[in-house]
Amino acid sequence: MRKGALALCTAILVGLALSAVLASACGLQSGPRVAQGAATPAAVPATPTEPLGAVREMLGQIDRDRALDDLRRLTGEEPICRGADCFTITNRLTGSEGLRRATDYIAAELQSLGYRVEFQDWSRRGRSDRNLIARKPGVRAPGEEVYFVAHVDGVGPNNVDRFPAADDNAGGAVDLLEMARVLSSHQFSRTLVLLFSTGEEQGTLGVRSHLEQLSFFFFKQKTAYEIET
Q1: CA 4, CA 191: separation in Å to the nearest integer?
Q2: What is the 3 state secondary structure string of the chain?
Q3: How many beta carbons lie within 10 A of that of residue 115, not counting itself?
Q4: How far, in Å, CA of 217 to CA of 20, rounded?
Q5: How far apart are the two ends of the chain, measured CA to CA in Å?
Q6: Residues 159-181 pLDDT 10s
Q7: What angle do CA 50, 56, 57 make, to 5 degrees?
Q8: CA separation for the pair 125, 203 (Å, rounded)
Q9: pLDDT of res. 186
């Protein structure tokens, strides 16, 4: 797990930078706090909150042990278990069972946090898979979206079935998941979109497919940041 631990250290540093970006780009709002797993209130009396103080609070909520557990599961160091169903990921190749299990795991975690979660199937250049998309609606400008993107798929040496792909890009996916946990109890002016893509190692196929399904209006209403470790 040496590489995985390095990825996690990078993840925490990236989390700090992205929290600062998010505070300014999304417009942090004060108002009722939302418990993890609770539905977002229909109307929130929100006023702008001081960004640096909110960022400090977010950084204090990062749980290194929890993130490391995620990393172990996505890289196959530990099995992913849902009840009596346990599966150990050997790799996260695009189109593989391991990648499907990884995105299922992330989706379940996001749903438990109250995010609106959907899978988006894609097929391109002879390959097929699905992207995972989670949304947290904004309270003032829900039509304006801020994207955070990390790919979940990974590749390894030829003719090798077992490879963790921790640095590229389990660490980035873990970053985004841990950030989602921290941000789930905060409100923002704009809609937060978390895109866990697939097919990246074959030419950003999942992201390209997602962009093709968006209207030209996207470029005026959305901002995007990518997490790669």
Answers
A1: 31
A2: CHHHHHHHHHHHHHHHHHHHHHHHHHHEEECCCCCCCCCCCCCCCCEECCHHHHHHHHHHHCCHHHHHHHHHHHCCCCCEEECCEEECCCCCCCCCHHHHHHHHHHHHHHHHCCCEEEEEEEEECCEEEEEEEEEECCCCEEEEEEEEEEECCCCCCCCCCCCCCHHHHHHHHHHHHHHHHHHCCCEECEEEEEEEECCHHHCCHHHHHHHHCCCCCHHHHEEEEECCC
A3: 23
A4: 26
A5: 15
A6: 888 999 998 999 999 989 999 99
A7: 90
A8: 10
A9: 87
Q: Which residue do the tokens 């950003």 mark?
A: 204
Q: 145 or 25: which carries more pLDDT confidence?
A: 145
- Domain residue extents for the chain: 2-31+42-226
Q: Which CATH architecture has domain 2-31+42-226?
A: 3-Layer(aba) Sandwich (3.40)
Q: Residues in the chain, how many?
A: 229
What confidence score (pLDDT) does residue 91 get?
Answer: 97
